Amino acid sequence: MAELEQVFRRYDANGDGKISTEELASVLRALGALPGPGEVRHMIDEMDSDHDGFVDLSEFAAFHCGPPPHGANGDKDQEAASETELREAFWMYDADNNGKILAWELHHVLRQLGEKRSIADCSRMINN
């Protein structure tokens, strides 16, 4: 849960305990994504269980750690969605599209997110 809180704080730029559409859009842009009109609002709405227009830590945690959907194909659908999300996240890091995340690519993304890590740090992260 500590890691999830750390990720949440990255999104919650102003520290008010809520992720707004502007904050989510900012993180997506920093990662190289260009969300279309309404796409960020849709993402917030998926997580916003109390419908206040924001995502708090409990909603963020429930979305990312909640149980998979039930039903005949629930597990298969969840597995396919997870694989798609993982591939999309991978390609955001793989700037040269060679199928590998290199230290300089990780360094670039972390810098865009405000992390101050050296290329040597990034190389150690990848090699571990």
- Within the CATH hierarchy, at the fold level, what is the topology of the largest domain? Recoverin, domain 1
pLDDT averaged over residues: 84
Q: Give the C-alpha Rg.
A: 16 Å
Structural class, by secondary structure, is: mainly alpha
- Strand fraction equals under 5%
Q: Describe the largest sheet.
A: 2 strands, antiparallel
Tell me the name of the CATH class of the largest domain.
Mainly Alpha
Shape: globular
How many alpha or pi helices? 7
The residue ranges in which pLDDT falls below 50 over 5 or more consecutive positions are none
CATH architecture of the largest domain: Orthogonal Bundle
Task: Give, in spatial order, the strands making up the sheet with the most strands.
Answer: 1-2
Q: Please bin the fraction of helical residues.
A: 55-70%
Order of SSEs: HEHHEHHHH
The oligomeric status of these chains comes to: single chain
Kindly give the count of domains.
Answer: 2
DSSP E strands, number:
2
CATH superfamily of the largest domain: EF-hand
Kindly, what is the distance between the CA atoms of the first and last residues, rounded to a whole number of angstroms?
Answer: 22 Å
Keywords:
Recoverin, domain 1, 7 helices, EF_hand_dom, 128 residues, 60% helix, single chain, mainly alpha, metal-binding
Give an overview of the whole structure.
- By secondary structure, this protein is mainly α.
- The protein has seven helices and two strands; from the N terminus they run αβααβαααα.
- It is about 60% helix and about 5% strand.
- It has helices at about 1-10, 20-30, 40-45, 55-65, 75-95, 105-110, 120-125, and strands at about 20, 55.
- Helix 6 (about 105-110) crosses helix 7.
- A two-stranded antiparallel ribbon has the order 1-2.
- It has two domains: about 1-65, Orthogonal Bundle (Recoverin, domain 1), CATH 1.10.238; about 80-128, Recoverin, domain 1, CATH 1.10.238.
